[in-house]
């Protein structure tokens, strides 16, 4: 046994070093996103020529529940939602096949298809800034080197880069000079043709030696381009303005300095911490060896993983320490305490080994499972050692006594452990994402509890026989006061039972009226700020004001660094990230101990300085995928006017609701659009569209090499109409020669939405209400109530969704899981006790869980969230263990010692009070670090879970010792009454004699 124990500990330590560490367990998001970027295209064109064809091709995809699409200026995005049973890898391949068959217009990017998985949560966000004086060619070489080094790290999945420079040479034709020199504009299109070349023209023998002959020419600077001839005696510089522009694909800055951002994600099944270390090593190497670059980690989830592993381990050790103190206080025997504590390291070692075998990673959920299980790891051992200890107070030590004492409680602890495990079996009933998250947690709990049971039935008796062999143990007497109190309760059993049920009804009513919050995944270490202008605002004006706000944020003493981002990049689009060109986003890192609220208030007070813009701020992190506290109302239909009117009515109903912070609709923004309606008998619309595209947009005409870097040459638009008259006077080529556009077509001015939204192919308006996170359920219910009065016209439908609906669905999943758990627990106890009534008495201990849980939330003032409900589910398994230990002793007294029901209850309650209180207080002690510790963001193991478990366990333990005996006697009232009559008669007869 000693060798086995050492081997188990060794395997546990080895597994701990081997287990991959990550932030969250791997779970597929049941959604596939298709993104397309089309610079220069307005929302209407993107909707018609990109989104429409994509939606058509995706309509036959199997397993999808609904399709949402958004078309805006320069971008299009289609989101396909799938049901939780869909294999998302196959779904993604099917979507890729469908979109690749679509013919998209010129100048738009290929469709980027992405399916998110939690393993894609970035490991590190790194910025790269260059020293002054570094040339563009050097920058390109260095950024490529850094990118390749990051990609070469063992375990890296994807490296996304944004803020990349895209230098270009602009040729702006001068119409007056072209006319004066008699040069047609078309001559400029071929100015670069054949000028740069590199070709082999053959072999020849020179001076008796075979040599190769090549022809080569390359344009290396703007001056050379200016000197190119466009007609006899006329150079390009004579008729056009040629300039070198250092443009960027998208803007990214840190502390006011242009920067590149690298977002590094790990591959599936690789260790997040090792990837994070690899990133840190590369950054260190570059910063030391190359003075022209400065690399900096803005945020690292691998650090958060290490932090969460360390903090959970700290909480596990603190929990173990509290459990040790509790046992020592109750036992007053150091040897017995040491024997009990052995179960913690042994059970943890076995758990880690089993997690390794199951291919489960160490993440905040599995570690949370360990932290929650620590209190339960000693429960079985406490019951075994307490029973051996109690027997040794009256009997002489012998190996048989140890075996017999263990056997006496073996059935009770096996049943209680199995019931706790049974609570986690119905995890398979949960919805897709929820199941992927909770299953690792459930398996961790299951492994640790089974390990602790095995240790309690093998190692603990063995160690007890060695350690307690010669120890002097004082006899422990059951509490006489408690036995008297219980006797009174049994005599007037209806009073305590009615009081308990009134408390239960009151606590459920209190819970229903309490506002429920969402899981708070924000971190006050980071703030997000967004500045958004109307879509028709020129980008130059947006960036000018964006820089002004950036300077204001950088001057705040509470802020460590500020990043600014604007525009779309091909790399970001690959990850489904597309945004409006008139949106500037900021991320702020707060200094340690700085007041984030103060900065948020300061930002809000700046709103007056940015008229026409929407300035918002909030706490957030790099993984916050949109707001988790928004309630959506989708209004679908075929007629846009009736949808719009219904949306206005919905907004009017939602605005006055308390705790609604902001209401907005996706149809509020309008933009002026001029559409050229061509007379098909006069000209070909397709030809005119191509001509105007060439005249009004930059046209690539070739590339030159500058400092070893290939730079695109663009012929800028010749026409820049300033008014409606300018538009009408444009000249186009028709089959019958050049004509003014007004003679073959007319311009029609309309006000159109800047963004087009479709749901399952139909137009829809989404009204979104941002809600105070702690009041999510209350506001969601009030919005539903208000919208019941809205009567939409025929063909228009309202659909309420968002965080409130998701929360309700998750809560319902957990409630149904709770009912199944209760059924399984009852079944296990019927098999254990081979009777229907005793398990019913045990099950009543579950009824008292809500009393303590709600009391705990009221006392601490914590808002119940999804994790609080999960805490109640866990309590079902934890609280019945006490009742099982009690009723098992009652049955033992009745059958083996021929006691009456009341005698059996009084003796069992007196005897089992100590181990029941010990296990309950040890579990509470082990959970205390979770109440006062810093719970990880987005973790299931939160403060509210710990409060619910502690409150529920304390109250149900006290009520189990008092109410469960009353209910047990009530279930056997005839038999018990007859026994009491018989005893009373016997007593009278003895007295008479």
TrEMBL record:
<feature type="transmembrane region" description="Helical">
    <location>
        <begin position="367"/>
        <end position="389"/>
    </location>
</feature>
<dbReference type="GO" id="GO:0005886">
    <property type="term" value="C:plasma membrane"/>
</dbReference>
<feature type="transmembrane region" description="Helical">
    <location>
        <begin position="840"/>
        <end position="860"/>
    </location>
</feature>
<dbReference type="InterPro" id="IPR027463">
    <property type="entry name" value="AcrB_DN_DC_subdom"/>
</dbReference>
<feature type="transmembrane region" description="Helical">
    <location>
        <begin position="916"/>
        <end position="933"/>
    </location>
</feature>
<feature type="transmembrane region" description="Helical">
    <location>
        <begin position="449"/>
        <end position="471"/>
    </location>
</feature>
<feature type="transmembrane region" description="Helical">
    <location>
        <begin position="866"/>
        <end position="887"/>
    </location>
</feature>
<feature type="transmembrane region" description="Helical">
    <location>
        <begin position="945"/>
        <end position="971"/>
    </location>
</feature>
<protein>
    <submittedName>
        <fullName>Efflux RND transporter permease subunit</fullName>
    </submittedName>
</protein>
<feature type="transmembrane region" description="Helical">
    <location>
        <begin position="492"/>
        <end position="514"/>
    </location>
</feature>
<feature type="transmembrane region" description="Helical">
    <location>
        <begin position="409"/>
        <end position="429"/>
    </location>
</feature>
<keyword id="KW-0472">Membrane</keyword>
<keyword id="KW-0812">Transmembrane</keyword>
<keyword id="KW-1133">Transmembrane helix</keyword>
<feature type="transmembrane region" description="Helical">
    <location>
        <begin position="814"/>
        <end position="833"/>
    </location>
</feature>
<dbReference type="InterPro" id="IPR001036">
    <property type="entry name" value="Acrflvin-R"/>
</dbReference>
<dbReference type="Pfam" id="PF00873">
    <property type="entry name" value="ACR_tran"/>
</dbReference>
<dbReference type="GO" id="GO:0042910">
    <property type="term" value="F:xenobiotic transmembrane transporter activity"/>
</dbReference>
<feature type="transmembrane region" description="Helical">
    <location>
        <begin position="312"/>
        <end position="331"/>
    </location>
</feature>
<feature type="transmembrane region" description="Helical">
    <location>
        <begin position="338"/>
        <end position="355"/>
    </location>
</feature>
